[in-house]
Amino acid sequence: MTAQTALFALATSLLWGLADFGGGLLTRRTPALTVVVVSQTIAVAVLGAVVVATGGWHEAGPQLWFAVAAGAVGPVAMLSFYKALALGPMGVVSPLGSLGVAVPVGVGLVLGERPGLLQLAGIAVAVVGILMAGGPEFRGAPVQRQAIALTLLAAFGFGAVMALIAESSTTVTGLFLALFVQRVTNVAVGGTALYVSVRRGGAALPEGGRAVVVAALPALAFVGLADVAANGTYAIAAQQGPVTVAAVLASLYPVITALAARGVLKERLRGVQAVGAGVALVGTLLLATG
User: Residues 6 or more apart from 33 whose CB is under 8 A from it?
Assistant: First the structure.
């Protein structure tokens, strides 16, 4: 494994963790679909300018269908995850959502990657740490089957996006175009879902109306652009390879989200979360030294 793989994969986990934290805060006041559509629309505008400036249009080719697929799967996964969180309990849903790492890791193994023993140990330790950092609940009321089903659907979707975006380009300028296509698809799918929701009586605006959304535009821009940047850094990490290692390091984002909640909202980490963060760090070190 190259140092660049670890660097870009860890940058991915940082960006995804902060984007999830910001998105979680925003959805407390604003409908989740509106957060997705507005944040991704901002990302489309920025990426469109980047593609024009870098000449990324010349990189168009059949591989962009991977970006289209990633763009279609992403909103479905995110909305399934939000719905599962609403059904709860969050302490079960959040860790299970991290199981999406199995998809890109499985793809890497199918494509012939064979991690060394130290890396395999690092993968196992890091995944356990990621699950623990989500704060799993081992007691309490039974979890609804619908919540489990939606969480697993979301996890598969998150993992599929990682696998698909890694295949969508082979150059940096091509990556800009792929990310642009992915986000346009995100907006199309999310916008359609929002339209259907409104037609069925759902709310598109929060209490306080449009002014609340306008005031939140900087935060929405951060969420959208951080998510885009995370997809970009992951694609680079996966191209540097191996995917089995890049995917696990990139999936450390629940640790970042938990730490952000601790630092900003003063939420106390549960014992299992603190231990999980430490275990994930040990797994990261094993992967880096492997």
Answer: 79, 190, 193, 194, 197, 202, 204
d(CA 20, CA 226): 9
Alpha-carbon distance 188 to 258, whole Å? 31
Kind and range of the H or E run holding 135: none
| Token pair for 245 | 């290692």
The terminus-to-terminus CA distance of the chain in angstroms comes to 7
Q: pTM for the full model?
A: 0.81
Q: Which two tokens stand for residue 216?
A: 């939140």
Average pLDDT over residues 136-155: 70
The answer to whether the beta carbons of residues 130 and 280 sit under 8 Å apart is yes
Give me the sign of the Cα torsion angle 80, 86, 88, 94.
positive
Phi, psi of 186 (to 5 degrees): -55, -50
pLDDT digits (tens, 9 = 90+) for 198-235: 999 988 888 888 999 999 999 999 999 999 999 999 99
In whole angstroms, give the CA distance from residue 216 to residue 206: 11
Burial class (CB in 10 A: 0-12, 13-18, 19+), 28: exposed
> Which pairs count as long-range contacts for 53-57, CB under 8 Å and 24+ apart, including other chains?
54/173, 54/176, 55/173, 56/173, 56/174, 56/176, 56/177, 56/180, 57/177
C-alpha 177 chain-centroid distance: 19
Strand, coil or helix: 241: coil
Helix (H) or strand (E) segment spanning residue 136: none
